[in-house]
User: Fold this.
Amino acid sequence: MSSTFGKLMRVTTFGESHCKGVGAILDGCPPKMSLSEDDIQKQLDRRRPGQSRLSTDRQEADQVTILSGVENGLTLGTPIGLFVANKDHIPGDYKAMQNIPRPSHADFTYQMKYGIRAASGGGRSSARETIGRVAAGAIAEKYLKEGHGVDIVAWVSAVGLIDAPDVDVESVNRLSVDQTAVRCPDHQTAEKMTAHITRLKEAGDSIGGVVTCVARNLPIGLGEPIFDKLEAKLAQAMLSIPATKGFEIGSGFAGARMQGSVHNDPFVKKDNRLGTSSNNSGGVLGGISNGEPVVFRVAFKPPATIKLPQETADFEGQSAILEAKGRHDPCVVPRAVAIVEAMTALTLGDLLLRQQMRCP
Assistant:
């Protein structure tokens, strides 16, 4: 079940980057929820390649088709099948790389694990696998938003050494995030990020970055002690995304440098409920949501496939110079925003259904 995530709300993704298409099966979505392909397409458009000069030049419309689980605009409670065709793939770009594993890419490990691999386009390790996640996540998000008022927003908070100033997590929204191609809501920082990514793309190089995400209006009680804590499931979800290298919630690693008297979040009365005056815990206590915004950050490494010549070795161990062809993102974080939101929605949707079973 390595391609399946979740227990009650489960998503299974399928497909390789250069096969006929990719998609997902979402099981566990409640019945009688209104759903159309347009509801899903909005998020796929934010993830698709070729949407700006900051992304890969591959042109894919990524139009989704609902294959099952919906009738007359309503979910049936049965598995929802989702499919997106691959159209603009050029397998010939990868011919010279069939015998040379790309540095820091999954070519080597897939070949060693299975004795075979999809040598064209990266196969299952390609970011095109995330289309199924985003499509299923859009459905989970609709359920969370309409049924429970949960609001999820992610944005780019760093590209390389360029950090955006802190954002008000109570008010940031997708409209402000999407006003810039790099998906950073601070326009001055966005201009610097855009210029940096553009320079590196022209030079044939790449750069990493950070995506920050907030989930607001969560009910108290989401998360399952001990091993299925909310932050543990979010970490699993985020680190399953291609190119991720780090996850931190609330104060994160900075909290390790703080004193308890500073880090602790005192309780206060808020809108007829008990809340906290600060949120160093990131909205989670003991692995369970406490009613405050859940705030976390995900680190993405520079894309491994670059056009600059690299000294490496082929599968026989012979020295080789790799000059990769193909069309690849110089920085993944602008498109990763929608993927982070999708995996957040799938995680929260699953934990919410589990909590509802406990408290009908």
